[in-house]
Amino acid sequence: MTSPSTRRLLKESTDLQKNPSPYFTASPTSDNLHDWHFTLAGPPSPTPYAAGLYHGRITFPLAYPLRPPSFRFLTPSGRFEVNREICLSISGHHEETWQPAWGVRTALLAIRSEIMGAESQGQVGGMEGNEEMRREFARASRGWVCRECGESNEQVMREWWDVCRQRGVEVDVEGSEVEGGKKEAEEERGLEGPTEVVGEESASTPAPADPTSAYPAPAVPPAPQGPSTPAALSAALSTQPSTRPRPRPTLPAPATVAGTVAATTTSTEPANSPWLDRAIIGIVIALIILVTKRVVDVDDL
Fold it and tell me: How would you write the chain as a 3-class SS string?
């Protein structure tokens, strides 16, 4: 049955292979999972470590990750003493600040970005030095060979950068274009060449490719000017009489309306005349009745 520490280290080793970082590589040196070696690219300019590649060792306690690992650099850098455990907030010198959620990736990124970019200031395992000395160490570090690994720092990182590119990770480390840089530049030029040819081909055939130039006349018809205007006017006047009869069909509309009104009035007048006659007759009869009544009343008196 594997211990929690072994399971954690196996998980971290697998994660570093599946999700590689172009800034460092780390793996167990042998069957002992508690002893790892790492190779780290120096922080970018303007630090004096920009061109450097540094090799070191990580030792994990049996209680890892409950207790922090220890780190030491094997490559001379002018920043840390060689093969001496360094004092970090994420190392065994400060167990009180260690968090079990941290791991190898977190520790190496912190060393690269913060620790190597600052001064030692009396730090255990640190050393003072001027920038020129550190730049010289950085240039020499690329060819430094680890006795146990048997490869130079540049060989290790060159192989690791190939792994990163295969996994789709962009490599933006200074000096990563050394050696295979010419080949990559030629490949880029080869890719740029066809694009330029395509541009020249498109420039050589501008007229057929433009859809607006296929029909220039209908787009903007020329206005009649100069001596051609009288002919155009006469042609327009000669064509107008043939098109004039169009408004005439609209003229019968009022006549038809008037006719319909007259027809309705004439048709309503005969219908209304019997009613008028009857009304007049009724009024006459009423007057006769009134007159006769008065005559009878007078006779009675």
Answer: CCCHHHHHHHHHHHHHHHCCECCEEEEECCCCCCEEEEEEECCCCCCCCCCCEEEEEEECCCCCCCCCCEEEECCCCCCECECCECCCCCCHHHHHHCCCCCCHHHHHHHHHHHHCCCCCCCCCCECCCCHHHHHHHHHHHCCCECCCCCCEHHHHHHHHHHHHHHCCCCCCCCCCCCCCHHHHHHHHHHHHHHHHHHHHHHHHCHHHHCHHHHCHHHHCCCCCCCCHHHHHHHHHHHHHHHHCCCCHHHCHHHHHHHHHHHHHHHHHHHHHHHHHHHHHHHHHHHHHHHHHHHHHHHHHC
